[in-house]
């Protein structure tokens, strides 16, 4: 008899705990902020004689996909898409107002974009920017550099950028302390 009471009490406690965990999981899921990573621009001023257009296009896709996948692993972020991504939109191939409108309509909180530039055989660089869509305000703007012109170098640069974004981009729409002044977004 005593063990039956203990069992029912344990079962009741477990049910309460499950409901608490379930409620907090729903709350946590609703607190996720969405991020869309659109295609990055690419330029090459290395002057190499061999045409590497196809290889660089593939590496740029790898860079974007790696950046998106790594951001998607962050507990506070969820990745999203906007309609223009089906056509490979970039900030230079689409009007800023249209890009903002699509992002807002898709419920995107942050839009990630930028460019990669090959300076020489061994040195690449670029810029990674994160826009707070609701405020049309930059919350992250970094110049990156990396060594190498192969898949590994692009993946390494994307992972580094992802970690930097995850540690820098403000959560809950609060401006980071290091940039208290509003920074204009895309126009």
TrEMBL record:
<keyword id="KW-0732">Signal</keyword>
<feature type="region of interest" description="Disordered">
    <location>
        <begin position="166"/>
        <end position="187"/>
    </location>
</feature>
<protein>
    <submittedName>
        <fullName>DUF2380 domain-containing protein</fullName>
    </submittedName>
</protein>
<feature type="signal peptide">
    <location>
        <begin position="1"/>
        <end position="29"/>
    </location>
</feature>
<dbReference type="Pfam" id="PF11684">
    <property type="entry name" value="DUF3280"/>
</dbReference>
<feature type="compositionally biased region" description="Basic and acidic residues">
    <location>
        <begin position="174"/>
        <end position="187"/>
    </location>
</feature>
<dbReference type="InterPro" id="IPR021698">
    <property type="entry name" value="DUF3280"/>
</dbReference>
